[in-house]
DNA sequence: CATGAATGAGCATTCATTCAT
DNA sequence: TATGAATGAATGCTCATTCAT
């Protein structure tokens, strides 16, 4: 109801907000929105609860801010998928980049998965807007490649879903993956192995004879 | 932590426990463990909170019970993967069954995903035990098929992970899938389309020339 | 948003609710809505805060319940003002009853005053409805008495306001009244003195020569 | 509790203090002492919260300062009641002035009412001192008029209370008055109507035959 | 003078669990 | 078995006040 006074940000404000967002990412991705407490986040950010609430008005505001940034980074690899490049190497790069993100930013992946799992209560508009638009656009690019015979014919949407699912799996189901692979194969090399496998499936599999 | 006194159960007890577990599945899969409340579950099961706690000692006990059953059902398709069958049709069936489960039991899938996402705090022993054992065993079956040249050579573990990831995606990321596909392609037929795509990738792709 | 489950009330429920309402009346009338805390009320009612919230869902619900009852009792004297009685003795009785209420139920008077002072944020509908309707009706009765020459002609609405103001003053401004009157005249007899004065002003003053 | 160091004030200090007091009057009269926040007052005064607290050490200090001024203005009409004037026209003027104050300074009236309602926790000394002294004095003046037969015999204290109550009612119970009078009679003319009624009651009614 | 930053104490409300019947 | 009643421990958020600059 109240008018948001759009506070101009000082340097300290910006820095502290980053601190908070980082701590929040850790906590939210681990416990989900409801499972996370402001206390935990404040602790992680090294400040008191009321002080944290001086930078963000509410738990939800932190979450929303996180989500907005997240989506942008998260969609970056897909956004780079280039119409004019070579289809095979474009797809290969896309898968590589997605896997790298799963390896380097697993918290972001889990935060996103958490939100979608619960029905995307706080992120739906972005899914319907930005995300859908981008996917539609890139699906069209892929369809073009198919029509021109540069990759075999298949469903571009489900192709994208599958790439998402398989790559993000290494972040979202990390504990399971590592446990199943065991100490011998569950180290960092698992990402190399996954990359090799996924290329075989998606890249070789899509290559016309 | 306390030793469970193994109470003998009457028929009524068993029925009520089922009622509770069903309600709990609904709530837990929707809100996660911490986000769910006993009140909601009791409501869903049509009984009072203390009465519910007569059948299960605590919120966690419900969750654990649910998880135990879940894993068994969840692994059933993989367990059916038959050593002596035809590899190609075995894999095809496996993918089909997993997709059917994603379609028919999305709550179970989400509950499982939720748990793993949070680091499997309550299910780790089963992952390390039952699940890992089964995967190891079936990976060996698949390896056997590869060695005998009946399917092409690749990594059986990552193959299993990929089948899990892609099929479960249709349950866990359901909102996103339907939103992106839009009203025209996001109906029940999405499972058919997915099946067709996944067979192309996994079955045709693994076929030796 | 949630559907109110209309709880059937047990005897204990009813008794405890009364206890709470009584304590709340004490606290609210003393500190106002915002100034009162649930802790204070729970303390006054001899129970824990969560226990109190088992009987009333929120602070506001207590206040609303209190207000609803209040208005009914509060308007009772005016409601008894009888069309067919003798105007002079009707007015005399009305003033007496209002003064008795100020003496015997000062907390109710103050609670009401508090609410109106703050712009009646939680009671406006009742003012616009029940209260206005009743006043309109009784103003018409008084007007009738005037038209028939049984009391002198004046404004019936402002007459009612003045009776309200003067009688309630002995509850609402009690501290001031007692302080000004001092120990000699500020005891219980102040109500007798007030009654005598008010009758002189309102009753004798309205009498036609 | 600490001894106030009597700070000498610059002109700017004085101006800012006025700004603050005006904003505080608005807020305190609307929400009561506990319901008001320093933030709201600082906002209303167009300054930051710590800056406001540079001019007044605490919320309470603002309130006390406000109360002290208030009482002086508030008692001015009574103070003007003149021993040597004509009793009837003195009383008439007194009522007029009090009604004008209710019309022009309703916030002051409500602030005062609020404080008394809560038992005058912060203003008691002034009630016992300044206010009581003045009332005693003026009651004696009125008694003199009665003894000399210039107005009829009645209780001067309760007469003063009644004039207070009835006039202040138009400020303190403003919402109720306007709601009951409705759009047709609840405009600014309500003060004229009230004045006419009150004169009839108090002035004509006190006139010896 | 002015303000951004920080905090301890408080507050309404929720929730898992226990107790008595 | 079943439930009404009770509560300790959170939990999100507010607010008067202080501190540093």
From TrEMBL, chains A, B, C, D:
PROSITE patterns, A to Z: HTH_TETR_2
One Pfam family matching this protein: TetR_C_3
DNA-binding region: 37-56
GO molecular function: DNA-binding transcription factor activity; transcription cis-regulatory region binding
GO biological process assignments: negative regulation of DNA-templated transcription
UniProt keyword DNA-binding, yes or no: yes
Keywords: DNA-binding
UniProt domain HTH tetR-type: residue ranges: 14-74
Record-linked PANTHER family: HTH-TYPE TRANSCRIPTIONAL REGULATOR RUTR
Full protein name: Transcriptional regulator, TetR family
């Amino acid at each position: 109801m109240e008018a948001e006074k759009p506070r101009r940000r000082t340097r300290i404000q910006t820095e502290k907000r980053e601190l908070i967002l980082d701590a929040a990412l850790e906590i939210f991705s681990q416990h989900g929105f409801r499972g996370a407490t402001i206390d935990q986040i404040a602790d992680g950010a090294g400040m008191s609860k009321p002080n944290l609430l001086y930078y963000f008005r509410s738990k939800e505001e932190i979450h929303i801010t996180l989500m907005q940034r997240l989506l942008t980074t998260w969609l970056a690899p897909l956004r780079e998928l280039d119409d004019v490049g070579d289809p095979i190497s474009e797809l290969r790069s896309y898968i590589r980049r997605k896997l790298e993100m799963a390896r380097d930013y697993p918290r972001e992946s889990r935060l996103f998965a958490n939100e979608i799992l619960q029905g995307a209560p706080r992120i739906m508009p972005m899914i319907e807007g930005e995300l859908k638009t981008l996917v539609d656009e890139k699906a069209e690019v892929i369809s073009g490649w198919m029509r021109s015979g540069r990759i075999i014919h298949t469903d571009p949407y489900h192709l994208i879903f599958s790439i998402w699912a398989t790559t993000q799996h290494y972040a979202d189901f990390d504990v399971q993956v590592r446990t199943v692979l065991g100490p011998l194969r569950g180290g960092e090399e698992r990402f190399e192995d996954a990359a090799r496998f996924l290329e075989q499936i998606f890249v070789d599999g899509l290559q016309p004879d």
